[in-house]
Amino acid sequence: MEIAALHRLFLETPIVCTDTRKIDGPCIFFALKGENFNGNAYAREALKKGAILAIIDEEYYATGNHTVLVSNALKTLQDLALYHRNYCGTKLVALTGSNGKTTTKELIHNVLKTRYNTIATKGNLNNHIGVPLTLLTINPETDIAIIEMGANHQKEIAFLCKLAEPDYGYITNFGKAHLEGFGGVQGVIKGKSEMYDHLIAHDKFIFFNADDPIQLQKLNAYGRKTGYSRDKSDYRIIRFLGADPFVKIGFDQTTITSQLIGAYNFGNCCAALLIGEYFEVPPEDMKRAIENYVPEANRSQLIKRDGLTIVLDAYNANPSSMKVALENFKDMEAEYKIVFLGDMFELGQDSAMEHQQIAEQAEKMGYQGVFLVGEHFFDTASRAHKFKTFEDLKDYLRKHPVTEGTILIKASRGMALERILDLI
């Protein structure tokens, strides 16, 4: 079946599913494969549960007129998504970066939806499957789509840009994330910059942080851009007014008080303001949109309970985000501070060094308690409390409960360190 014909069927039933457990009515099922599953084996079940069509790539699972055999179900999904994206003609803003992608995406969405019909990546569906699924939620009435793109190796952002064909782009930052896959910090810069490379090659528009020397240098000779800065008069001046604990921003004569903890969220807010202004969103609407945004899903959440103030930032971590989280926590006004830090993943040969540096940084900051959790932190030379497993930490906290103070919880997603909330 040609993509144009498949697209006509999609327009009649504009719902795509890749998981039979989530089918609750008419849809088009794509039989995707993974290391531990084969979606082809669920084609019959998908049809029984209401799918009008099952796209499969193994002839053995064909079940008649309602299955379509293709050479690669994933590529067909991706081709359909690009075809649909171009059919709708929606303006598309793409963003990537080492840290802050999802928060920035949500802030941009909050700002733009005050004036436009918008859609945005749900959660962190930002890979080669999530991006096409998001593109397929666009409809002809959608004015702007905000698409988050994640990557852990070279050429991934380039592929996602080719898949989505963005009209605009923004890179949050270049940090020490996924060092193993990218091959070091320079590999991260090269890999994330694939978005700028794509946009420049296709003469598209770029938003950027003019205070980031890497971005400034890369875009110096490119004309179709606009940037923000704290003090460079050639760019949009946005002032940092503090973060204790919430980020405050000076935007012309207006003060914006966000519900985001940490100075590192200043740039995320700036991006939303810069992009909102470009799309002519009124300043008062942007102010309201940013002030009303409340982080969730373990991202820089401020929780108060039983005499404790908890900064929960356990959605993800890498050396760059860990460093700024510790620095921001140090600047918070509180007499008694405790940090719980969990392992950082995908650091490759730099893992031991990076964990050691974070352990030393935490020790030097004078916190009343430093707790390191996970095999990588356990192997550091540190005087902090170290626990090889979460169960070891749990046993310790049962015997030595934390009853007061201000607490930072920061770790990679795989550590699920938010479980500490059940222990304190």
Automatic annotation (TrEMBL):
The keyword Cell cycle appears for this protein: yes
Keyword annotations from UniProtKB, A to Z: ATP-binding, Cell cycle, Cell division, Cell shape, Cell wall biogenesis/degradation, Cytoplasm, Ligase, Nucleotide-binding, Peptidoglycan synthesis
Top-rank taxon: Bacteria
Annotated metabolic or biological route of this protein: Cell wall biogenesis; peptidoglycan biosynthesis
Annotated TM spans: none
Domain annotation Mur ligase C-terminal: ranges: 299-394
Sequence positions that bind ATP: G97, S98, N99, G100, K101, T102, T103
A GO term, aspect molecular function: UDP-N-acetylmuramoyl-tripeptide-D-alanyl-D-alanine ligase activity
GO cellular component assignments: cytoplasm
InterPro entries referenced in this protein's UniProt entry, alphabetically: Mur-like_cat_sf (IPR036565), Mur_ligase_C (IPR004101), Mur_ligase_C_dom_sf (IPR036615), Mur_ligase_cen (IPR013221), MurCDEF_CellWall_CoF430Synth (IPR051046), MurE/MurF_N (IPR035911), UDP-N-AcMur_synth (IPR005863)
Compartments (UniProt record): Cytoplasm
Catalytic reactions of this protein: D-alanyl-D-alanine + UDP-N-acetyl-alpha-D-muramoyl-L-alanyl-gamma-D-glutamyl-meso-2,6-diaminopimelate + ATP = UDP-N-acetyl-alpha-D-muramoyl-L-alanyl-gamma-D-glutamyl-meso-2,6-diaminopimeloyl-D-alanyl-D-alanine + ADP + phosphate + H(+)
Any GO BP annotation: peptidoglycan biosynthetic process
Keyword GTP-binding among UniProt keywords: no
EC number: 6.3.2.10
Domain Mur ligase central intervals: 96-275
Xref: HAMAP family: MurF (MF_02019)
Protein family according to the UniProt entry: Belongs to the MurCDEF family. MurF subfamily.
Protein name: UDP-N-acetylmuramoyl-tripeptide--D-alanyl-D-alanine ligase
Species in which this protein is naturally found: Lentiprolixibacter aurantiacus
